[in-house]
Amino acid sequence: MDLHGFLKALVRRWPTVLLCLVPTVGAALAVTFLSAPVYEARTQLFVATRSGEDSAQLNQGQSFSQARVQSYAAIVPTRQVTEPVVKELGLHTTPEELASQITAVAPLNTVLIDIAVRDTVPERAARIANAVAARFSAVVERLETPKHRPGTARSKSHADDETTTSPVSLGVTETAVAPTHPVSPRPLLNLSAGVFGGLLLGAGSVVLRETLDTTLKSSEALGELTALPGLGTIPFDRNVPRRPLVSMDGHSKRAEAFRKLRTNLQFSQVDDRPRIIVVTSSVPGEGKTNTAVNLALSLAEAGVSTCLVDGDLRRPCVASTFGLVQDAGLTTVLIGQARIEDVMQQAEGRLAVLASGAVPPNPTELLSSGRMTEVLNELADTYEVVIVDTAPLLPVADTVGLASLAQGALLVVRAARTSRDQVRTAAASLDRVGVRVLGTVFSMAPVPKGDPYGTYGRYGELPAPRASAPEEEADEPAGAGGAGQR
Question: Residues annotated as region Disordered (predicted)?
Answer without folding.
Answer: 143-167, 456-486
